[in-house]
## 1
Amino acid sequence: MTSVRTSKTGLQVLAEFHYVPPKVERGYANQTLYINVSDHTISAKPVDERMKNTFVGGRGFGLWLLWNGVTEKTRWNDPENEVILSSGPIGGTTSYPGSGKSIAVSLSPLTHSVMDSNVGGHYGPLLKFAGWDAIEVQGIASEEVIVFVDGNRGLVQILAAPEQADDSYELPRQIVEMFADTPDERVGISSVSSGPGAAHTLMGCLNVSFYDPRRQFPRLKQAGRGGIGTVLRQKRVKALVVKYVGVKAESNGPADWPSLVAVGSKMHREIHDQDPVMNDMRGGGTTMLTAIMNNFDLLPVNNFRFGSHPEAARLAKPAFLPYLSQGIPNGCWYGCTLACASCAEGFELRTGPLRGQKVPIDGPEYETIAGIGSNCGIFEPADVLEANFYCDTYGIDTISFGTALAFAMECYESGVLNRARTGGLELNFGNSSAMLEVLHQMGRGEGFGMVLGQGVRGMKDLFVKKYGADVQFLQDIGMECKGLEYSEYVTKESIAQQGGYGLANKGPQHDEAWLIFMDAINKQIPTFEDKAEALHYFPMFRTWFGLNGLCKLPWNDVEPADNRKKHEPREAARVPEHVGNYVQLFRAVTGREDVQEPKDLIRMSEKVYNFQRLFNLRMGFGRRAQDAVPYRSMGPVTVEEYESRAERYDQQLAELGLVPADMSTAEKVAALRAHREGRYEELVDAVYKRRGWTKDGIPTLETVRQLGIDYPDVVALIAKHS
Amino acid sequence: MKTLTFRADLCNGCRVCEETCAQTYFKVTDNLKSSIRIYEAEGTPPQFSANFCNQCGECIDICPTMALRRDKNGIVRLDKRLCVGCLSCVGFCPNAAMRIHAELAVPFKCVACGQCAKKCPTGALSVEEVADAELTVTEIRLKAVAA
């Protein structure tokens, strides 16, 4: 085998596997692909009915495959760890917006527990059409490899790739040219790659490509959270590549095409009518969020100290529009007319290895703007775009990068760090040049970039041990939970969202719950029971998207015109008509007659969500202690923070029967803290109760039995901890 | 460019145009497979309106696979080989004139062939030359690449 080279790519074939691509039926190819890059095993694993009924697909399949692939002793950098990608039964549907997501699952280098991260791009759907519901990559290769799946020929290869680029600017372009036999085939190629920054840090992202036939280059979407890109690079996998040419309306094998036609064309029309008068996602993606968050005091500024800034308008949507190419499709899968995947074209870089070149940039997303921008005190759109490009190119998660840098900047300004400790970088808030330099250091694997790349939790440990920093202060200001950096929303005034972040299975990412408006602005969930119900329903409902290969945005970033007239506010927040669409969509694809109403969707998620909680437990986490959040997410840590919003906080203390006028600011900070920390514990109690968990946050045997996830090793795990 | 045109004052609502279109392209009598649709408004005497593609080309910029292109006569045509059945064009047609049928995997639309006009007993339909539509963003980009 070792002398064989593929005729087209010229790459050495290390192993190959031939198969007959099955026809996708009702959203499933009914097999998953197992690859071991250590010993070059390539094999098919069957997908049975119990696996489909219990885990559905996507994140569920990833969790189940990983559960069976690792032990409680497996660490993220062991060969046993896996990188798994799976779309889900609805994934690959072309007729309903937002139906092309993939979910990556792995043991995370940041949390050391199980991680899931969702991503657009064409990989997951094309992989399914190539005959695989998931790909599971285990082992560590002895040399740099590309894993290639050719769904038209029925061929899987592990290819030596010593000379291909290792960054996600050049590599996806090279891959398109290497694997497309004709220009028309370029749209049938998708790759998953990371970059050198992922190899040098713990916060590596995956870039998933889709070829844009108008712009004529591969676009990138990111599975950013939790360092799965770091795992991929640690395995010496330069890229996972799939080729499937010939996507059609019927490729996903839906059970009921007429029903899909009805629900899909209705939704497209709704987006046509409603998006322009609602969020205008088509006109600039999520960039519109910056101004909204700033207006509601929710935009993170200077490491989440504040929620707004006078200069925030410089990072608002109008500042980015001149960079974006508009008027052509921006969906990251066919048929996504919400089309939030903005693209800046012809952006001239001012720093780094590609300085002076004009490049395209996918994004920016709100999270990137808030994370690298306002949260680091940076209000220059061009610098945010430049950092966005290099994060993607180096394979670094923009959210973890922004939140970690904001933490380092506060450490610098508070004296924990200094120029000697940063290697000469002046890490003041607002220093764009230092921000870009530390990013390039992460790409090169040198200097303070290597420190920042350990993430907030790693830096906290290091600064305490090496510099004698105050443990409590770093714990208070270090915006991580479970080892994962916070995404970019200020939660101080929303206790429900404090729980939305703190109780999230993978760590503080808003894809589980975003309850700030419902809780703090619109006051729709006043009691702990109300909040607990919201922290049951919404995480379960949002989990369902990740089981099916769906994007969350078309659920509630556009609404039917009569949504808020037809339903009382709390019900309207669920967007009942769209929930009904999803029941119809699921049935139309899978033909499952047992799914009749919205609660059936929730039930599907409960199985997987509880399983993931128990997976955390199995890895040594998953208990109440891991749901603790930094005080910066609950309230003002410092006197300066308190005084910036003194009127609001004083009023709250007065409502507690205290007399703020008689107290020093330090006393007021302490009193507010005691109150808010107590309320967080009350919230946790209420949520655990609602979810059927013990006071320590462990799903009970009864809960597990009711959900049908009482596998012997799950039962044994619970018994061990009871 | 050419486009189908309609005169409401001449239409008697006989729907021969719908039957002709469905028969011409799908060999069926199912009028839901007609690219032209006649609608009756309430009132006396009855008033009719027609809905069909006016070749404006907005769908060209909506299609993710570039399956919709304008031919040399200005007619917007769907290349079925490239169509993935996403229905974006159906939802985003400004005139709701791009159609899909439950039995079909790809949309269809009026291509101003004139068959319905030939059969129209009252002369309400005709194919006429009109001013060219403005270039779409896609067409401008393709011209730039070609140049």
## 2
Amino acid sequence: MNEKLRYWMLVLPGLAVMVIFYIWPVLNIWGISVTEPAAGLGNYTRMFDSRAVQVSFVLTFRIAAITTVACLILGYVVAYTIANFAGRVRPLMLGLVLLPFWVSVLIRSFAWIVLLGRSGLVNDTLIGAGLIATPIRFMHNELGVLIAMVHVMLPFAVLPMLTNMRGISDSYMKAARGLGASEWRAFREVYFPQTLPGVFSGGLLVFVLSLGFYVTPALLGGGRVMMISEYITYQIQEFLNWGLGAALSVVLLLATALVLLVAARFVNLRKTFLERSS
Amino acid sequence: MTRSPLRILFSTGSWAVLAFLVLPILIVIPVSLTDTSFIGLPREHLSLQHFETFLESPKWLHATWTSIWIGAVVAVAATTLGTAFSIGCWFLSDRAAMIARWVMIVPILVPPVVQSLGFYKFWVTLGLIDSHTGVILAHTLLGLPYVTISVFAALANLDRRLPQAARNLGASLGMTIRTVIVPAIRPGMITGGVFAFIVSFDEIVGVLFLTVRRVETLPKMIWEGIQESVDPVIAAVATILVFITLLITLFGMLRSK
């Protein structure tokens, strides 16, 4: 027993810091949402009546869903190639996935602004080549936000799928081929089902991170594509509306929790989050 | 193996995706060398003027230095707390320890704006707004999940009989940890520390909520720069950071070979 107490002495400092300075303040947001500016559920009724809030929530889920699907498709191709075909170029391909992962989100968003802006490099090139007369709007709309978000989230989809695929023995595919299946059929019916845990894992990671994403949508959306995180800061910065911001935060947090709860039926949450290999 | 259609499809596709991942980032390099005073490709000749602006600006240099030292303090704090935590949980290996581990990774799941709002209100009460201590504390909390994940991954590969043998031979718990466990899990600790440093070095939302004017970090300068005027000096900063990342990635690739 004494021994167990000693182990807890090791656990406690970190755990206490996390509970006191993180968990408690986050839970306290609920308190703010029902006390500011006045006690009661006023913020929640106002929020559910607001058309702008509904639009923002729908937009957030739509962008998160599209980003997730795009990342899974593009990421699957990359992960599959690295796991099965790459050979000598494997370290190079892996490096090219990891490099963007380590470059800050702020820098990556800046690069997209430089490319997609009204007088950005893409528009300049197209006009210079005489292909278009007036600049195309790539930014400050959903398209720009989506392009940049897929770019930022892609490594998060590739890495769990790659971990999963590396654990799949190629003897199944060989057996299927030996028994006369075409390569496509062997892939579809034998290989693909085995990769589903990795796909779900990567998809969940991307979806959850996208739901609460702030930096890229705020920079590429230019105030016109307001995902819920930006809506919250907007309420707080422009109107000092802490109560509504807190109520929105509570709902966003609950939405995230709900997604995780539903996902727990299909995804091994422990492998996705706790035992994530970096 | 023969070049089957499926293989060609996947290889071509993945090179295209990798180009999409990497090329847009590299665009900051030519832009940083522009001879113009606005964002764009160089017109007449290449120029290092924007790098000079960065290196001669006390504001930019000060912000860079602030980000580096805050990141270093955060890395040490998060690695210390997170390693002790993980070792304790590893010894316990019961249900309570499992719950504690989940509690520790909550910051990965909570949206940045939500946690920053929580920080702000609490930091006001504590008087930590616009202070370096306040930023260090917030960043340490955000770095802890990554430290516990990578340290625990290292512990999972450790033979439980090793610390047991040390204990049976009379070593105290503290001595066992120092001489048996820590040397074995050092790679995991280093990975965790590097993660914590990078989390802090890149963190922007918390800093925007928690600081006013006294604390300026590099991401905050970049953020403000993008919002106010799109000055090519940001491209110069971006280029420097991309090069550092490139070198570290190359180094990591060579080492893992």
